[in-house]
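From the shared-data thread, chain only:
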Amino acid sequence: MDKKSDIGLIGLAVMGENLVLNMESKGFTVSVYNRTISKVDNLIEGRAKGKNIVGTHSLDEFVNSIKQPRKIVIMVKAGAAVDEVIHQIEPHLSKGDILIDGGNTFFKDTERRVKELEEKGLLYIGTGVSGGEEGALKGPSIMPGGHREAYEALAPILTKIAAQVGGDPCCDYIGPGGAGHFVKMVHNGIEYAIMQTIAETYDLMKEVLKFSAKEQAKLFSDWNEGVLGSYLVEITGQVLARIDEETKQSLVDLILDEASHKGTGKWTSQSAMDLGVPIPSIDAAVQARFISSFKSERVMASKILKGPVMKFDGDKYKFIEEVHDALYASEILAYTQGMALLTAASKEYNFDLNLGNIAKIWRGGCIIRSKLLGKITNAYEKNPELPNLLLDDYFSELLNKLQSSLHNVVRTAIEFGVPCLVIGSSLSYYDSYRKERLPANLIQGLRDYFGAHTYKRTDKEGVFHTEWQ
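Structure, as tokens:
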């Protein structure tokens, strides 16, 4: 082969294929390989026809078709499949070659692979890629972590294929080891919380105001033009507006109410538990997906368990405004909890994360992109050591205004028996964080009573134990 490729990619599922086409469209020659060879041939004869994309039928041919030091992206299912690809390709590589895992990998797996490959003279990058199929093709948000020198070699490619906002690429070096995949994991946790908040908002207006999907589609479309402007609010309006061609009903009303999950939300909750960081909105979003999967039990329960029977007799337009503000507050609190988790992880794992840069990377391409991220970027650029977003002047003033709507909406949801796991958890997080004194004093008293676990006092220094009986 006379001319060698700039980069190679293994794994031609939809995300991998679209990334290949994205890289080629930005001027790079790309080699491709897939375990099922027919996928290579189908791509070369189809979407890649006439493009600078090189199809290969063996790992040896694939590796030899790429310029040294080789840059190879792995786009296969997270877990054992990644280890298997690494095991198979490693004998074909040379010292200084770079492997890039672009899947939704658990960050501790990435940490392990970075160390193992470093011992063999190979460089490794674990990168989050957000934006779905369209983002992969047109420009995703990219969160690379691992060997810094590997990122420097990859940067001319990654920054060019990433989404661009205001002339800045939505890609930057995140940190060592598994930092990139940790940040992508938290991104997905925030995504869980925001989607569930939107779903609860939809449910509230459906159950309390009896709004149809069509009426709500217009509402979400209007909201997207204001402070709630975001990718998820935008596509909510589009999903609610879609009519099923066969039945002429709103399609959303025909979709089974069971939400799937791939594990990243659960990993976020587990990691927060390990670090001792409260993220109740994200935890509640994960639990909401779990409870949605108990469909048959819920059908049975609906026939025997009773809830309140209410009719709304308030000001409809005022309530819509309050729901808007409660959604806005809940979204802010979802980002707040995610950023607090990143702050703790940065210290615990020596990631040295730049939260302002991370918020900037999320402004385009990714699923949680929103107008809010510009304000979040400003907050961390103003104070890189900010321990919690709620302590920033802009956000503290904003939440002080929004909190009454959040309280009123949760109160209405409780009165009507409409579940609001995330909106309610967001409110509890806010109310807990703003309280100077929580009832944990009683918990310590109880722990000392049954287990002599001791306690501290507010009026004197030291550690104390009481013989309670």
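The first helix runs from residue 14 to 25.
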